[in-house]
Amino acid sequence: MNYVQASDDYLMYLEVEKNYSLNTLTSYAFVLKLHGDFLTANNRSLDLDELTSSSVRRFVQDQVINHSIKPRALQRRIS
If residue 14 lies in a helix (H) or strand (E), which one and from where to where? Predict the structure, then answer.
């Protein structure tokens, strides 16, 4: 499955099944887009079967080093 399709499906699940607020959905969508953009910019596959914990750790590392994300914001992004 493709990352973009999985992200859309997940956001739909949060909206319909979990009844998350618009602000929460917007926040989740923003972080999913950031992660997808990171994968693309670093020539990583958007195929979920090829997504590794290492690439997720690199995304977190990128957020801290290159974007000066504060710990609380980072925790939200990780969740």
Answer: helix 3-16
